Amino acid sequence: MMFIGFDYGTANCSVAVMRDDAPTLLALENNDVYLPSMLCAPTREAVSECLHRHWQVPTGSDENQQLLRRAIAFNREEDIPVTADSVLFGLSALAQYIEDPEEVYFVKSPKSFLGANGLKPQQLALFEDLVCAMMFHIKRQAESVLAAEIRQTVIGRPVNFQGSGGEDANRQAEGILLRAAQRAGFRDIAFQFEPVAAGLDFEATLTEEKTVLVVDIGGGTTDCSVLLMGPKWQGLADRQQSLLGHSGCRVGGNDLDIMLAFKQLMPLFGMGGETEKGIAMPSLPYWNAVATNDVPAQSDFYSTVNGRFLRDLIRDAANPQHVARLLKVYQQRLSYRLVRAAEESKIALSDQEQVATTLDFVEAELGQIISQQQLAEAISPPLQRIQEQVSLALTTSNVKPDVIYLTGGSARSPLLRAALQQQLPGIPLVGGNDFGSVTAGLARWAQTLYR
């Protein structure tokens, strides 16, 4: 029976198996081992119906059964055919959304929402279906690569899913992941902290014991663990004595992208301007437009009430043509594209002094020049939050690390690396496979548990 390490990430998903005592990541989309965490369907309801009708996935709880009944009725009423190919994932999902943003249901990073406070039972059921659909698809892809059934998995999880909510939020989120994985067909399911998993992959390279500070900056969360590592710990199923301290918060690469979009792109849409009477424009609609990892903010921005408010804002604005661009974002549901443009600029600024960000999907020739200095200013608040987590992990462990192991999608950022080296001078900072280290470590832990 096969087992996998499963990194159900905020930005990307990936899975790995152990071959000859080494982790191997499996191709999930177009020979790429990373599947962007995106899903697209004709309607929200098509996801639930596709799971049941075409993939024969068990429905689970009473709440999910009610969701399914409502979904089937809605799709029938709206005359929306649901086929086995109606739900798309990864770059295919993104391409479909870019082609027709108004007419499709698109979700990026469902993991961001799993620990959210105040979710109603029907929202929890929907998120469970979304996660289950992605897990089912990924499991099926992995099984086709391996030509074998996969029944056992270790799934990575952040130290804290949510900034507030504490253990209640963590239980809620892990519960959604567990039920989704069971429905997707996994029989044995275990969880491991993502920074611990990343550390396990680094540990395989050590020849002597070291105290390691693992800093894992993913798409949605930053997680830190202080661990004793070395040959004597490898392969032990009980690692409690080696885990010296943890910290985690819901700030990650997505937050850097959102802050950059807010600070540098939103002025093109009227933010910071005035009405004809000289009153400052409200900033909240601009924040809600780009806060793609915040359910209430996005619900508020795309509400009918906000549509009317934006039209009133255009009427009153000193530069109505700028605010009209924000109305277009509202009408064509362009939030994700704005944040993606900011993300692409952030990546380009890793090795360029400045970059020209183009927003021609909003208006021809609309764009902005962004410099490294402007990026540094924009991401300063989330960067401070990340540094606070490093301090917290070191305080709880009460030891000085021998080495910092930096991993995660944002680990390549020169700004981030410089901030950590300034915070902890004299401690060597090493990196690994920025995207694959968590997955590789999860596969190693799966081997320890299931071999």
UniProtKB/TrEMBL annotation:
Ranges annotated as spanning the membrane: none
Pfam families referenced in this protein's UniProt entry, alphabetically: HSP70
Protein's UniProt keywords contain Phosphoprotein: no
Gene3D superfamilies per the UniProt record, alphabetical: 3.30.420.40, Actin, Chain A, domain 4
Domain of life: Bacteria
Keywords: ATP-binding, Nucleotide-binding, Stress response
Protein name: Putative HSP 70 family heat shock protein
Organism in which the protein naturally occurs: Yersinia pseudotuberculosis serotype I (strain IP32953)
Lineage: Bacteria, Pseudomonadati, Pseudomonadota, Gammaproteobacteria, Enterobacterales
